[in-house]
Amino acid sequence: MLPRVPTMNIAHRGARGVCPENTLLAAGMGLAYGAHMWELDVRMTKDGALVVIHDETLERTTNVASLPAFASRAPWRVCDFTYEELRMLDAGSWYVQTDPFGQIAAGAVDEEDMDSYRGLAIPTLREALEFTRDAGWCVNLEIKDHEHLIGHTVIAEAVLDCIRETDMVESALLSSFQYRYLEQAAALMPELPLGVLVEEVPAMDPVELVRSLKAHAYHPWSEMVTEEDVARLRDAGFGVNVYTVNDAAAMEEFASWGVTGIFTDFPLLCWGVLQGELFG
Asked: Would you call 12 a catalytic residue per the annotation?
């Protein structure tokens, strides 16, 4: 069952502010930090495996570029690698090397934490869903756009099959910028809640857009959504989950607007903000 709270604290790619994104470790940290659910990204490999990774290519969040066996395969697209090849990659050390949010420099990540990041694997979607199910938790799955890539015609149905097989239908929310996938999901699994991702003001009225896709929520970029948008969508019975909010004052403002969820890289910060909103 999806959380029934005034505003959900959604750990964006797990607690990616303080550990490597889209790993089971990041998910577990988001859970420990009080997130109501976590968000993950789904892509398909060359041999049809569903894996949890955000980028179309592997070089930002793995060591693929440094491995002689893969040196000639730039730009290292996920869809050009098999599942077994992906399991050879280190999906955690990059965080230590790049300190993407400055948290190592700030002292928020200690040596023991950094040691645990090295050698992390890219999870399969099944592993991520089983982890979430076993924790009694919830998840937002974002299917990345595979148009012009391997898997475009089959990824949505494959994701739905995995959700069903892991008994996560009642604890999952599916979203995408590729609306074809949402249309397929609405037809094949109408009981699964859907979120419509947008990164710019849509040509269609937001309420009509969500309604036309038989979706349940609108997922706008925080920089382009307005309080009026939120009010109209909420009055129409739809959720509004904004991404990606890492500033406490902005979290407070969005919560005051009545958004149903806040995607954040810092779920512990969001937990504190929402505690103030609820009990302050």
From this structure: yes
